[in-house]
């Protein structure tokens, strides 16, 4: 959301009432928890103070914002609309506070980064080395999670930037993306795997168990579709994991297969002994993207991190792919 829109939205409150941003903050907490008592505990205020807050808002807007539901309260339709708008304004106010407080500090501060497991393992460590050399006052908070979780956190303002696979749908979802580098997802197994010295067929692969992510993950859906299109059952998930960070170590100890980024093969000490099981049909090309909340304020530290990532990220991935070859 642009600052102009946020300003007009805030100004729209003024003819109706004298805005007390504390009341708006209290309102959002009550809306989140659905209970005045729990909201009072979380905010360290009294329940009567929150009840008066609700009364002031409802009198100001001349509409009911809450209604009772069991032992708690829920938002009315008008309350839901107000909460949606206020959360956007709250994010913009947080951006304003950060921008003002960071003026004059230069390249310093915390950057909250969300990323895919392969990025965390093979790209972020080398970016950290560069940052320590060039901008030691930048601190990183790394969150490794599924793409959909990272996207929600980015939209909600919990993250400053994400590095993850390109999304299938990007229209009007509040996230701006920039391509970082091309990535390839392949089938892998231990170096002594019965299929490791040949170009394995899908039928041969289907005889082995797999380490796979959750069924909702796009790479798993893509792989299952490949097998189904060849009239074969989808790969059997012997081990299902939210993140595939542990997959290489599992593969080393078993004859299971996995479907992971080529970045995982041979480039890290923990992953020695993991090799590609080549097959054109099971080779998935994708792009890793940098994501930011559209029109959001980016601190100098965040901009510097993105600049370093854009400059050195493709080199890191190319180096790892070379070692894999």
Describe what this molecule looks like in 3D:
- Strands 3, 4, 5, 6, 7, 8, 9, 10 and 11 form a nine-stranded mixed beta sheet that branches.
- The chain has twelve helices and eleven strands.
- β1 (66-69) and β2 form a beta hairpin.
- It starts with a helix and ends with a helix.
- The radius of gyration is 25 Å and the shape is globular.
- The protein is of the alpha/beta class.
- The protein folds into three domains: 3-102, Arc Repressor Mutant, subunit A (Orthogonal Bundle), CATH 1.10.10.10; 109-182 and 287-324, D-Maltodextrin-Binding Protein, domain 2, CATH 3.40.190.10; 184-285, D-Maltodextrin-Binding Protein, domain 2, CATH 3.40.190.
- α2 (21-33) crosses α3 and α2 packs across α5 (77-102).
Summarize the structure.
The chain has 325 residues and is of the alpha/beta class. It contains 12 helices and 11 strands. The chain has 3 domains: 3-102, Arc Repressor Mutant, subunit A (Orthogonal Bundle); 109-182 and 287-324, D-Maltodextrin-Binding Protein, domain 2; 184-285, D-Maltodextrin-Binding Protein, domain 2 (3-Layer(aba) Sandwich).
Helix content: 40-55%
Mean pLDDT: 85
Number of individual domains: 3
**Secondary-structure element order, N to C:** HHHHEEHEHHEHEEHEHEHEEEH
Architecture of the largest domain in CATH? 3-Layer(aba) Sandwich
Query: Could you tell me the number of beta strands?
Result: 11
How would the blueprint of this fold be written?
Elements: H1 3-13, H2 21-33, H3 36-43, H4 47-61, E1 66-69, E2 72-75, H5 77-102, E3 109-115, H6 117-122, H7 124-134, E4 138-144, H8 147-155, E5 161-165, E6 175-190, H9 202-205, E7 209-212, H10 218-229, E8 236-240, H11 247-253, E9 257-261, E10 274-276, E11 284-293, H12 300-324
Parallel strand pairs: 3-4, 3-5, 7-8, 7-9
Antiparallel strand pairs: 1-2, 5-11, 6-9, 6-10, 6-11
